[in-house]
Design goal:
This protein is α/β, with parallel strands linked by helices. It folds into 2 domains: 174 residues, Rossmann fold (3-Layer(aba) Sandwich), CATH 3.40.50; 170 residues, Rossmann fold (3-Layer(aba) Sandwich), CATH 3.40.50.2000. It is 33% helix and 18% strand.
Length: 363
């Protein structure tokens, strides 16, 4: 398999054989499918069971995926895929003019079918522009006036009480695809980065991820500081990672004020973060992308939940424990906690340490 990069376009492609339009191949071409998921890191990761289900339903198909550039490391080694395409994603800016070379290359593939898992305006427009003969999407109210015309077929979204990975199968029901018995997700870190990861993370270290995409999912910094002290007394080695945005970076500064000796890892790109996470002894985090990464890498996981629903967003791993805070009064659209006492603050450092010791105990 070869990696092609041109005009900002990243494609994973098998070695070429006869030309696509060769007279010998026109009648024998397998179904060509494009899946689109143009949202966050976690959404791209939770797409994996759906991609694998498409491959099982159509084993001879050529399966392409269009995702945001930032999410490429999560799907780069997914074996169900034929080609992986990516374009930059900037919140609030479509940038179709800059991305037209990529869209034009996608149109040249002449897809038989496309399926848009995003359910947003950008995913709908990309579905139309990529030009598949059959374009499947979600029938979601709102959005720009012409969104419904971007698809040739629309399916009602699944109820919100189902897991997000499972909800993808509502749209695939149009292709007679049903969920598998297991929804466990497996991802692969870049093996070429393993040696560099050893230099970054000492052996037997437990990673604590401080940040979250929205502030209300963050465990209080004072709790992280207390956990570091009692874990160190118990003989456990912790290291901390913030996110990349300024708000999350501030959490690391606050932590260092409370416990100056606490090690904070440098900012890492996603590929290196996956390699470092894979060698960690365990991960402690809130409802974040790294939570799903750890589950996919089969790293022992302590997940801290409060303002979000476990049934919808819980990790899909084999070695995990979930701790929940007090009942949360926050609505789903708010980014900061609306309560005088943050629901996650009800999870004590002692509880986290006990769960950590339990999950690290063999047998």
């Amino acid at each position: 398999m070869r990696l092609f990069i041109r005009a900002g376009l990243k494609i994973l492609a098998p070695d070429a054989g006869h030309g696509h339009n060769s007279p010998l191949n026109i009648m024998a071409q397998p179904l060509k499918i494009l899946a689109i998921q143009f949202k966050s890191l976690g959404d791209a990761l939770l797409l994996i069971p759906s991609l694998q289900a498409i491959r099982r339903r159509y084993p001879d198909c050529t399966l392409h995926v269009l995702i945001s550039e930032a999410t490429v490391p999560l799907l780069k080694y997914e074996p169900s895929l034929t080609r992986l395409w990516s374009i930059p994603r900037v919140r609030g800016r479509a940038r179709f003019k800059q991305n037209w070379p990529i869209i034009r290359a996608l149109r040249a593939e002449r897809f038989d079918r496309s399926v848009d898992f995003s359910g947003n305006d950008r995913g709908a427009i990309l579905s139309l522009l990529c030009g598949a003969r059959e374009r499947l999407g979600l029938n979601i109210p709102g959005g720009f006036l012409g969104r419904r015309f971007c698809y040739t077929r629309r399916v009602a979204p699944a109820p919100l009480d189902r897991h997000e990975a499972l909800r993808s199968f509502a749209i695939l029901s149009a292709w007679d695809i049903t969920p598998p018995d297991s929804m466990a997700i497996e991802i692969r870190a870049d093996p070429a980065l393993a040696a560099s990861a050893v230099q970054i993370l000492p052996e037997e270290t437990i990673i604590c991820h401080l940040g979250a995409g929205v502030a209300k999912k963050q465990w209080p910094v004072s709790h992280w500081a207390a956990l570091y002290k009692i874990a160190k007394a118990a003989g456990l080695q912790l290291a901390f990672t913030p996110g990349h945005n300024p708000r999350e970076q501030m959490l690391a500064s606050e932590l260092k004020t409370l416990v100056p000796e606490a090690p904070v890892l440098p900012s890492l790109d996603l590929s290196m973060f996956l390699a470092v996470l894979k060698r960690s002894r365990a991960l402690i985090t809130g409802d974040t992308g790294p939570m799903h990464f750890a589950a996919g890498l089969d790293v022992p996981l302590i997940a801290l939940f409060g303002p979000t629903a476990i049934a919808r967003w819980g990790p899909l791993g084999r070695r995990q424990q979930i701790l929940t805070g007090s009942p949360c009064a926050c609505d789903t659209s708010s980014h900061v906690c609306q309560s005088s006492n943050h629901c996650l603050a009800a999870i004590s450092p002692a509880q986290v340490l006990a769960s950590l010791q339990n999950i690290l105990t063999p047998g």
